[in-house]
Amino acid sequence: MAEPPRFESVVTDEMRAQIGVPREPFVCEVTTTGVRMFARAVGYTDPIYYDRAEARRRGLRDLPAPPGYMGTPIFDPEASDPTGGARRGTQAGVRSPYTLVLNGGTDVEYTGVDICAGDELTGVARLESLTERYSPALAGPMLVQVTATTYTNQQGEVVATVRGTGLSYGPRRDDG
Amino acid sequence: MAEQIYFEDVAEGAEIPALEKEPSTQQLVQWAAGSGDFYQIHYDTAFAQNTGLDGIIVHGALKHAWLGELLHRFASPGGRVRRVACSYRGMDVPAQSYRLRGTVTKKSAAERTVELSIWGENESGQKTTPGTGVVELPSRA
Predict the structure, then answer these.
(1) Secondary structure E strands in B16-70
(2) Terminal Cα-to-Cα distance of chain A (whole angstroms)
(3) Contacts of A163 in chain B (CB under 8 A)
(4) Which of A24, A153, A12 is nearest to A95 (CA)?
(5) What is the pTM of this model?
(6) How far is it, in rounded angstroms, from Cα B16 to Cα B50?
(7) Hey, is the C-beta of B101 within 8 angstroms of any chain A C-beta?
(8) Are A66 and A116 in contact, with CB atoms under 8 Å apart?
């Protein structure tokens, strides 16, 4: 089998030093309106996500958060990103020298603690790994960033860890 | 509401009931609001084309959430979803049917958890969102 083409690494010591460093915490509110909006957008028909009486009948404090819903980050017009809504400085990825970006994947792992409307979750994100590889599909090198965000509820219980994989590739930035 | 599936009734290798979707552009806008992701490639055709795409595409995170719904439907009402993980391997577009599927790969009696291979496939049967799920199921005991 032919060896993959060699390529120049774009990962600097400065980028590598970010691995494992916790970013500024951010707070997400889990609300009944937020749960209903998320559930409606996915297309859920189970009344547990819409009807508080049904949620209570099934043993929950309030409407539960559907899988993937970690609440809504509190928006600050001065400090939040207008596209994603999160406060700047709270997300873990490093700025890639490559200009093209793809979302590579999502992994949401719950600890088993209920997440319900009324909860306030605090997220802390970290860059977990930086790897480079040659992508035959893109016919070029690719930088893979995995970030991990741990969410803790208002009682101090860890409720979930969300891992995101970010891919970047293609032409480099003029300053990169 | 479907009948409860119990841990004892699940066999490794079995396929779980599939979930069919055919996202409209309206659903993508609902998702933008529901998830808080307002990236324009998911609702603004001209913007999407300027980035080199043919048109607007379905959010990866929406396909992840559909896999969550697939697992929720399988485990409900008495079970719970413990993990939903997937990779985004291909782009999907609105107004085409998309099917979420899963098969049981492993059972663990200690926590009554069931691990599944899960995926979303497009009209050609191409798995654009392969992944892994874990659900906890109630016991008959």
Answers:
(1) 19-21
(2) 33
(3) 85
(4) A12
(5) 0.95
(6) 40
(7) no
(8) no
Look at the block and give the residue holding tokens 């930086």. Answer: A130
pLDDT in tens, B100-123: 999 999 999 999 999 999 999 999
* Distance between CA atoms of residues A10 and A130, nearest Å: 10
- The per-residue pLDDT for range A162-176, each reduced to its tens digit, is 999 999 999 998 865
From the list A40, A58, A73, the residue facing B36 with the nearest CB is: A73
Q: What is the mean pLDDT of residues A128-143?
A: 92
Q: Using a CB-CB distance cutoff of 8 angstroms, which residues of chain A are in contact with residue B97?
A: none
- Other beta carbons within 10 angstroms of residue A9's beta carbon come to 8
Question: What is the least distance, in Å, from the CA of B83 to any CA of chain A?
Answer: 4
Under 8 Å between Cβ of A163 and A148? yes
Let me know how many helices (H) and strands (E) chain A has, helices first.
3, 6
The predicted structure's pLDDT at residue A77: 92
